[in-house]
Amino acid sequence: MYEFLTQVFTNNSILEKLTAPTGLILSLITVVVSYLIFRESTPDEGDIEEPEHPEMLVLSDYTLEQLKAFDGSGPTKLIFIGICGKVYDVSEKTQFYGPEGPYASFAGSDATMSLAKNSTTREYIPKDGDEAPDLSILSDKEREALDGWISFFDKKYQVVGKIVY
Ligand code: HEM
Fold first, then answer.
1. Ligand 1 atom with minimal separation from the 115 CA
2. DSSP tag of 160
3. Pick from 45, 54, 64, 122: most CB atoms within 10 A?
4. H helices within 47-139, ranges in order?
């Protein structure tokens, strides 16, 4: 036995013979394991899942007339408000902007001037065909109030499009 072992470790050709099958077995095991792992991570046809996409957001252009459809009274119950050209989706707050809410006049409208002038009536709501609100007529205080509302809406609501005049 001792003689054999000495031969194994001194004679290269015997060592090669012994290690060659071991290498082969190891290679086979690697191939089989890789195949099993690969098979595991590749779903069979039929159970391929749809790729997950984040919810798609389509930004649209709205004329004042088109915006009117989004006052919460339509079948979709969507409520959009335009402020300084941006259209926000405020549908989640029907208690404020719904038909019975205190700020219903903003719903489906351009509320820029109303917010600047702290008005909840329709006095400053532009009508179809009107020009874009002229911000240069606002006092510093009104402009400040408007900027405050813009950052409020930017933080709280999703922008869904822009107003085209
Ligand atoms: C007597 C006067 C008013 C009272 C007592 C009042 C009260 C309130 C209250 C309690 C809120 C909710 C605040 C919160 O959720 O933390 C609110 C929100 C609001 N108010 Fe007034 N308000 C008054 C006048 C006005 C006026 C004149 C405007 C016109 C610019 C206005 C515009 C708004 C808007 C845009 C909101 C935000 C609603 C949202 O969360 O989207 N309010 N108000």
1. 30
2. E
3. 64
4. 64-67, 94-97, 112-116
The atom of ligand 1 lying closest to the CA of 106 is: 35
Name the residue ranges covered by the structural domains of the chain: 2-41, 60-163
pTM for this one?
0.73
Architecture of domain 60-163: Roll (3.10)
Centroid of ligand 1 to alpha carbon of 133 (angstroms): 22
Q: Rounded distance, CA 25 to CA 116, Å?
A: 80
**Cα of 102 to ligand 1 centre, how many Å?**
8
pLDDT of the chain along its 165 residues, tens only?
555 445 545 555 544 554 577 777 777 777 777 676 666 655 555 666 665 665 667 899 999 999 999 999 999 999 999 999 999 999 999 999 999 999 999 999 999 999 999 999 999 999 989 999 999 999 999 999 999 999 999 999 999 999 999
